[in-house]
Design a protein that fits this description.
heterodimer; A: 112 residues; mainly beta; 5-stranded mixed beta sheet; 4-stranded antiparallel beta sheet; 0% helix; B: 112 residues; 7-stranded mixed beta sheet; 11 strands; 50% strand; globular
């Protein structure tokens, strides 16, 4: 089972920031938070990941709370092409396996 | 998703036939993960392989499904005696030791 909880859907206006929340209250100290998205039926696309510190790349920013129990993915200027299902994932490290367990995600609709 | 090649993109099989799905990792990637996505559902982990080794097959059905990642050539997901319930999109994600996975565009299997 996924170790994260996300709202099933959100929407935002084009050009505005999209803030997608994620709860992962049972995260362990060495487990990373990953964000992926899936546009329509395409393959999942890696966005960003982090452990403790906030992270930023050309796509998004990831804000992780100090207690690591929740995080927020920020798309600073959402476009229509950002409409997708966004998955927040805690990477499970078990023996030698680092599989990603996808939950239901948040369906983000960017409105014109 | 650039670099992870999956083929065929679409495959139609009749019940009882065999389906073989191939995944060529990005250059330098030695970790392969297979996921299945049923229509209108999320991605379910199936199997994790490294070169010539199955590391984690906890998501694989016990019968008819097998996977390999030989020393040379692509990873192959093999489904024997397909049934209608096997109709799904099968995604391959590959990675190195850095953690993030990059996914292909998937293979869509339709069983008639």
């Amino acid at each position: 089972d996924a170790k994260t909880t996300q709202p099933p859907s959100m929407d935002c206006a084009e050009g505005r920031a999209a803030n997608l929340p994620c709860n992962h209250s049972t995260i362990s100290g060495n487990e990373y938070v990953y964000w992926y998205r899936q546009i329509h039926s395409q393959g999942p696309q890696y966005i960003i990941h982090g452990l403790k510190n906030n992270e930023t790349n050309e796509m998004a920013s990831l804000i992780i709370t100090e207690d690591r129990k929740s995080s927020t993915l920020i798309l600073p200027h959402a476009t229509l092409r950002d409409t997708a299902v966004y998955y927040c994932i805690v990477r499970v490290a078990q023996d030698s396996s680092y599989k990603l367990i996808f939950g239901s995600g948040t369906r983000l609709l960017v409105r014109p | 998703n650039a670099g992870v090649m999956q083929n065929p993109r679409h495959l139609v099989r009749r019940r009882g036939q065999e389906a073989r799905l191939r995944c060529s990792p990005m250059k330098g990637h030695s970790h392969v993960y297979w996921y299945r996505q049923l229509p209108e559902e999320g991605l379910k982990f199936m199997v994790y392989l490294q070169k010539e080794n199955i590391i984690d097959e906890s998501g694989m059905p016990k019968e008819r499904f097998s996977a390999e990642f030989p020393k040379e050539g692509p990873s192959i997901l093999r489904i024997q005696q397909v049934v209608r319930g096997d109709s799904a999109a099968y995604f391959c994600g590959t990675g190195a030791n850095t953690g993030e996975l990059f996914f292909g565009e998937g293979s869509r299997l339709t069983v008639l």
